[in-house]
Amino acid sequence: MFLHAKHSLNDRINSILLKFHSRHIFPLIAAASLLPAIQTQAGSPVHVQDLMSQDSDPFDGFGKYVDVDGDTAIISADGTSESGVGAGAAFIFVRDGGGTWSQQAKLLASDGSFNDRFGFAVAIDGDVAVVGAFHDDDACPGSTLCNSGSAYVFARDGQGVWTEQQKLTASDAAGGDEFGFNVAISGDTILVGAPERDEFGEASGAVYVFTQNTSGTWVETGKLEIQDPLESDRIGTRIELEEGLAFVQARRSQDPIVDNGGAVYVFRYEGESSWVFETRLLASDSMFNDVFGSSISYRDGIAAFGAIGVDGRFGSAGAAYVFERVSPGNWNELDKLSASDSAFGDGGFGMSIAASDGRVIVGAYTDNNENGNDAGAVYVYERTSPTKWTEVAKILTHDGVEDDLFGHSLGVVDNYLIVGQQVREMNGMQTGTVYAYRLCPADINNSGQVNGSDLAILLAQWGGIGPADLNFDGVVNGVDLAALLSAWGP
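Now predict its structure.
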């Protein structure tokens, strides 16, 4: 748990350390790096910054969806009207060595127009970003209501400049497909969902695969073949691509008793643009309208799935499920997560989700709490046994109000969490905000542990400013040392 030391303790520690000569400090730093590692508990994440666009538009939807990779985040703003009403945009933010985020770029489609909804879906991997525009009208020249959809690929050069690289459309595009409703990228593969495509009946949906060839061009190489598609499955509403696995949600089920219970199809990459169906995952207690797969995350053998329609004690509060991949095709359901304080009227738990470094983090964007009805919240769970995740924190915004929808999206990388809030009243207009947190500030080097290496960094930054400033008061001192030591434990 992150603790604030009293001033007397701070003064005491300062006086002790100031007595050390450098010849004593540096051996201490060296010795500290050899201390045994102890696993960290998440404790209370610390809010570090609000991320806002430099030129917000009314109803721009900033923060509706986010994705993050390394030190770069991409944030949707599909309601932006710079290229026409509702044409859309996406924003790139980068994090510096001190943990501060700043806007690097605003992405616009080169041919953006009315109601394209460019930015509704966003994904990033390294220096490549993909942005969906599911209401684009390329398949119906002259129409503004075709909604065949498209996706755009942007690349960043060595100077941090982002340039549109290519526009992707389906080879068999048709009006109403909504290609670009969701996107994912990993390495040289891009997945694009078209959930309204009539592939196997009305709105059965489809997921397209694009591969980058040796000349750098993205080429459509096929579709992910769903084994038992149904009408209104809306395949491709939610997709995830990570570590050679593709995850695809289908809303419906073969069992009419649990229709709209949801399922997630898993595909495995076999090389040479070949994707092989691995399994179909369902919740063990699947029920009608659970919408399993409302959100999807996978990391290091652990998959987490939101199910926003699951009934709790007071109606459809939502839930999340954790699965483990034991071997190819062999998956075990480990745990079911729900909010410990779920109350009447709460909902949206599972709208966003992230599995990362022993944690599962779940957004509940219509949670009712002290900030107001539908203000939203984010819950943090830590793995406390091989098959159990325990709720350790609930995050509310420091400035939340009613109908904010905080937690509609989230992204995690290393020790950093960003959370999208779809609605925020600012200067008389509705826009959005993204909030940045450090999950465990004492884990300075983002190793997943608080150990001697973190202590060494803190001592090296003593009296100055840097990531070791755990309470963000502008100086590394005894308060920060006390906080680090308080996190040094199971």
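The domain at 42-438 is CATH 2.130.10.130 (Methylamine Dehydrogenase; Chain H).
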